[in-house]
Specification:
The protein has about 190 residues and is an alpha+beta fold. The chain has one domain. The protein is built from four helices and seven strands. The strands form two sheets. Strands 3-5-4-6-7 form a five-stranded mixed sheet, with helices on one face.
Length: about 190
Amino acid sequence: MADLTGVAWNKFPRKANPADQVAAHFQFYELTKSELAARLNINNAFPGVRVARAAVFLCRNVMEPVRAQFGPFTPNSVYRCQDLERALKGKRTNWTSTSQHTLGQACDIEIAGVANADLADWIRRNLEFDQLILECYNPQEGENSGWVHVSRCPPGPGQNRREVLSYIWDRRTQNYVYVEGLQATA
């Protein structure tokens, strides 16, 4: 295991060993780990150095501050290759995802004992981000229902939008819908 925490995100090597430390509390393998990919034998490795570096930037600037504030957690999902996105979303092989997960710029987080609404609100108030989504949160199912999706673009062209959304069940249409702000399913 190498300590790569001192390597600048934009100089990070494309290939690192799975146990290499990329931030104080995260190892390289956590950025591509997926139980679904393992079950379906999908290679979820980074496709290139740009995506790996974006994931390291996200880890250091979003996941690590969340860890410092709330304690240990394992991210549900950081990088997801196109094949994994298709499997996850039940799409055909010719479909291409536009999710920031495929760029290494997004992660899904749940932390045991921390209400997802509180986690999302803390991120909103304390971190720079591109998009923050409180997904499938229904307090009637418990404070840990759903998860928090957060993305952050690495420095470069374009700005982080600071878009805050919720993905909630709409009883009227009987579908999940995106709404502005942090909201629970009513």
